[in-house]
Amino acid sequence: MLFLVYLLWDSRYNISVGWFLAAVIFSGTWGLISGLALLIPAEGTSAFLLYTARVVGILAGVSFFLFVLEFTTGKALSWKVVSPFLAVPLITFVVILADPSAFMSVQFEGRGYSLELHEFGMALLTYGLILHIMAISLLFRGYLTTDGAQQNQVGIIIIWYLISVVTVFAPFVLPIPDYFTVGVFGLLFLFIGTAYALQKFNLFTISPISKKEIFDKVSDGVVVLTPQNIVIEANQRAEELLDLDGGFAGKSVDEMFDSDAAIHKLLSDDITGATTFNVDREDSTKYLTVTSTDFHYGRGNTGTILVIQDVTPIKTREQQLDTLYQVFSRVFRHNIRNELTVIRGVLEFAQSENKKEHVDAQLESAIESTDKLLEHSRKAGQAEELIRDQHEPRKQPLDDLVETIVTKCKETYPDATIKTSVNGDDVLAVPGFGRAIECAIENAIVHNPYPGAIKVSSSTNGDFVTVSIEDNGQGIPDDEIEVLQNEKENSLTHGSGVGLWLIKWYTEKSGGEFDITSTNCGTTVSMTIPKA
User: Fold this and answer.
1) How does 499-522 read in b/e, with b if 16+ C-beta sit within 10 Å?
2) How far is Cα 424 from Cα 290, in angstroms, rounded to an integer?
3) Among 431, 457, 443, 436, which Cα is nearest to 504's?
């Protein structure tokens, strides 16, 4: 027994191993106490040991049943399930302490003894027999529904378990003296069989896991349908992706999804291969890819297994890359072309002009256009870096972030007036989020025909913080705002630069929302991001 405990100790946290160890320990203790009762001459002490042995024997039976229950279901039992079974041995021990005669009587005959079970003892015997029958039934069911190494494991357990149970209950039906504890030999067979299974079939090392538990832990959604599109089963991930509330088994596709045309079409049509569709919700759009596979069950039935993957992050990244391509294409096609046209014209003029003062003015214009090109290039590089690098939002102090950016902008634009009113909240934002604030302030100054008056403020609403940049300019054209909202540029509608796109992308990458309110009296750029 001790050697078997030693072999299993390292695996004690695996499914069912703990209860098997408990059964082994209680069984060995039962045999030891029964043997001591024969060796101790004091009848009172021997009787107490025999009573105790029966309680420990019940604990062994309960433990073995719980072992079989865990082993065949592959799920760890909660104490809520275990407690009622363990309550029986506890009640038995209390009854023995209060009135041993209610359990059984012991008659000593020379070196031996005889036992007579009373009503309570017979009830406990029946309880133990029922547990063993249930355990054997579960093992036979497991044997019929498994294969390979797991089936071999169950087969070994059935054989040695039957031998041990027969030897334990033999004295109650055969003319065997009570003091001749043949159950000890049954336990010996069980221990030998377990050691063999450990060596031959990796018993407990590859102990079974609940298929339902695996089914629910799969990262993709799985929906199983009958040939009539009746839902047989759906895992937890499918419930999350399809916004189900449970209770779906047995329902038809029409009952479940009549309010959602996209999902209804997905599950009711004859789908082959993989397809992607979008599910629109109040505050977001979810993109799902579904793969359909037929499976055969029963007598000639062909059902359908739908594997559903959430590809929203992939689709979002595709959209971002597509938008980035459009913005880059527009910057090189439109902005850079315009600035290079200005520079070329200025240089041609300078080449043909003899008056120095005219040349100086034109060269100043060329330098200004060159600076704009460099700024476009810098922001385009920032946009490329933002889209390419998949950084997670991290905790940042908003007041320090704003103070650093505002100080930099005041040095660059000394004529502008920049006021701040920012609280001390920490926010969750991707690295470089300060560039979004900087772009908003720069846009407010550069595109303002009046002396720039900028206000940077923040407000908190629940779990989110809104950073606002207000100016007193002439506003942003509606078509530029429309481009940002539609996330698509073309030859007729396009932005004037990369700055607004940077603000939008930095905000969305931080898990927030970007908004622009613009009139002919000024513009407010708002970035709402999560509070840390």
Assistant:
1) bbbbbbbbbbbbebebbbebeeeb
2) 45
3) 436
Characterise 390 by phi-psi region: left (phi > 0), alpha (psi -120 to 50), beta (else). beta
Pairing mode, if any, of strands 453-461 and 417-421? parallel
The residue-averaged pLDDT of 249-271 equals: 63
Q: What is the pLDDT of residue 398?
A: 92
Confidence tier at 198 by pLDDT (50, 70, 90): low
Task: State the DSSP string of 198-251.
Answer: HHHH-TTTT----HHHHHHH-SSEEEEE-TT-BEEEE-HHHHHHTT--S--TT-
Over range 107-129, report the average pLDDT.
75
Q: pTM of whole model > 0.90?
A: no
pLDDT tens for 269-299 read 655 556 777 767 666 777 888 888 888 877 7
Compute the Cα dihedral for 463, 469, 470, 473 and give only its sign: negative
Tell me how far apart the alpha carbons of residues 330 and 342 are, in angstroms, rounded to a whole number: 17
Q: DSSP code of 332?
A: I
Single-letter amino acid, residue 476: I
The amino acid at residue 123 is A
Count of Cβ atoms closer than 10 Å to residue 129 Cβ: 15
Backbone φ/ψ region at 487: left (φ over 0), alpha (ψ -120 to 50), beta: left
Gap between the Cα atoms of 353 and 86, Å rounded: 105
Distance CA 508, CA 393 (A): 10
Separation CA 13–CA 19 (nearest Å)? 10
Secondary element (H or E) of residue 411: helix 398-412
d(CA 333, CA 323): 15
Structure tokens at 80: 């809520």
Q: In terms of Cα–Cα distance, which of 203, 14, 22 is closest to 5? A: 22
Q: How many CB atoms lie within 10 A of CB 215?
A: 16
Q: Give the SS3 label for residue 350.
A: helix
Assigned CATH class of 392-532: alpha beta
Query: What single-letter DSSP state applies at residue 519?
Result: E
Query: Could you tell me the CA-to-CA distances from 73 to 17, 18, 24, 208 in Å, in that order?
Result: 13, 15, 20, 8
108 and 45 in contact (C-beta within 8 Å)?
no
The answer to whether the beta carbons of residues 201 and 149 sit under 8 Å apart is yes
Residue 198: closest CA among 38, 24, 74, 320: 24
Q: Domain 211-310, what architecture?
A: 2-Layer Sandwich (3.30)
Q: 175: how many CB neighbours lie within 10 A of its CB?
A: 6
User: What distances in angstroms separate CA 327 from CA 421, 502, 509, one per listed residue?
Assistant: 33, 11, 17
Structure tokens at 219: 């990262």
What are the structural domain ranges in the chain? 2-201, 211-310, 313-390, 392-532
Closest to 321 measured CA to CA, from 276, 379, 384, 378: 384
Amino acid identity for residue 318 in this structure: E
Per 3-state DSSP, what percentage of the chain is helix, strand, and coil (rounded to 5)? 60, 20, 25
What's CA 136's distance to the chain center, in Å?
A: 36
